[in-house]
Sequence to fold (729 residues):
Amino acid sequence: MKHVGVGGRRTIELRDGWRVLQDVHDNGERLGIFEPGFAATTANGVSGWEEIPELGHLQLLLADDPYAGGRQLRSFNDHAWWYRLDFPVDPAGDGDRLRFARLRFEGVDYHATVWLNGHRLGEHEGYFEPFNFDVAELLTIGRPNVLVVRVASPWDARIVAGTEDQRAFGVERAMVKGTYEHMDGLVPRDVNPVGIWRPAVLELGVGEVWSHELQVTATLSDDLTTGEVAVEWDVESVRARDDLRWRVSLAPADRMRPAIVSEAPARLDPARNRLTGAARVSRPRLWQPWDRGAPDRYDVVVELVGERGEVLARDESRVGFRTVELERGPERTALLLNGRPYYLRGTSYFPDLYLSSMDEGRYRRDVGAAVAAGVNCLRVHVHVEQPAFYDVCDELGVLVVQDSDLNWVVPDTEEFVDRATAVVGAMVRSLREHPSIAAWVCVNEGGILVEEMREPTRRLAHHLAAVVAALDPTRPTIANSWDTEDPGSGDEHVYAGSLTGGAYADVRDARFRLLTEFGVDAPPPRARYGSDGPIAARLRREPDRVTDHHDYQYRLTKFYIERCRLERWRPNGGYIQFMWIDACPQSWYGVLDHWGCPKVDGAGGALRAFREVGRPVAVLLDVTADGLDVRVVNDLLRGLPGATLSWSVLCHDGRRETDAVTLDVPPDGMVRAARLPHHREHVAAVGLSLTASDSEPLADNHYDDIVDQPAPAGYPGVVEHELGVRLMP
Fold:
């Protein structure tokens, strides 16, 4: 939703002039740090105010190394931080009295308490949800105002008894926040982002009406022929009004069709009012993912109009029309998009531990690179991204599976259930207008790794699934990701050949219904860290096997993607690899490293696997006990008549054999295209190529060998927790 500055409304960005101090004695409230006249003294032991250049996570602004600072980073979360901003508000002008004023924070990580001019406004929990306070009665006009915010993101202390040697999985995560302290090679032990990390603004109004929240729900009829937007708009008035009209305008975002306008009388009481209405469009242009069509969207504009036609309030939103369901069963799992099965070719996304470092440019780079590799689905792993990310996915036609921040073990108390319900509900309310979001994940691996917490966490997951379904009945939920036997979940996480040991070939005969986590970490080239810094210094003491790890990441990733696609709809409905980009310099699960560069040493890293077997059209080698079958899979809705499949086989005895066949590939299907007359023991390498009838290249795939490869020596090694880096001796 976007407020538009009409009707005497203006916005002041509270960007510059912020100062901070850390309350190392946790005595700030008793000392009155929130009072405008507060000053540090010799006796009270409070540090002086320190200016910061901008709002953002404090580790990025103040730490020498916000990612690998080790135990020095822990001090950022040992005690609360206080922010102070002194700012003026100029007179409204023309003698108008200031009627409305709203102080709005777009994001504070994590617990926040706010004072204005010494008056306590309230508290907020969570890091991604905007929150606001009405402050018209507290502002001083023409003189300085003093805004003070206490911010804390504390460490967890409680551990499930008996799990001390597995703290990462046994610690009770008391915040509804997934961006801190995983300790398993993803989020380092000492990283816990804290601070006012998104903009703070003051919105002022001198008119007689003021718009608050706009909620828009887009639905599509079962036959896909009628789209409707249902609107709920909260508007406040200083006096009773019965001379107004309000209208809802619905138009394609590209303006290629005229707007549809619905208008009705609006009666306002001298308080906060809720206006409800709807607009319908016949045969709407559907939002489709990039490999199914165009991600068409519609602009929704709501306006309150006076008797002379003047616009008194105006808000805007953007939506898309599509339907989404999740069919789950032992014989087939499928996401149904606009009534048709849609195969998920996905990867997880967690681009930076410090979300304040992200911007639209980085999102476009990451999502665009994923689309180029064939990805049609991103799972946002146990956190919520900035709004710009979801806008980019809406625009580019990439589905999003959205996790909540709940992960592993959480407190088994009614108080925590209430807090989790509030934060997860805020996630749904703030994101549900985005057509790219296909499903909500309520809990990730809840209690799976700690047996005694399994049932309490499953109860929480199903409670949250019911809450989410009530808030958003238009999307499916996964209650507890990796609770494979739970009918409300049903997806799988498999790390054979990587984190759980063994070999990836151990699961060659498995039938994955919906594989939402698999992968293996591989470090970037040593040169990426430079010659200085703690990570570079520590890695110099280890053997340099980067090439081996890139080679293995390619082979393991390719194996899992192929196994899924060969079981397409029998029962497999898709896959989500873990993960697209490294979340920090020393987290190595990504296809891309933390700087956005592919890991292409050795055989080419996971990116080569995506390009060979993860695009909409792929040609795959199915290695069976009877021989080598070549299968062509086509996720597109158009068939490929007269395509040519060519292959080249290099045998161990040096013979090379080539051949080709012409075939018709059905839309949204898979065919067995050929059987190679060789046994796997005799084959050294295989090259496969598919071209369209007009000679356009459709798919290429190459097997350097078809022998399963063991993990590199020393993997998975250990995590050196002071730096949060995996060592593979």
The radius of gyration is 28 Å.
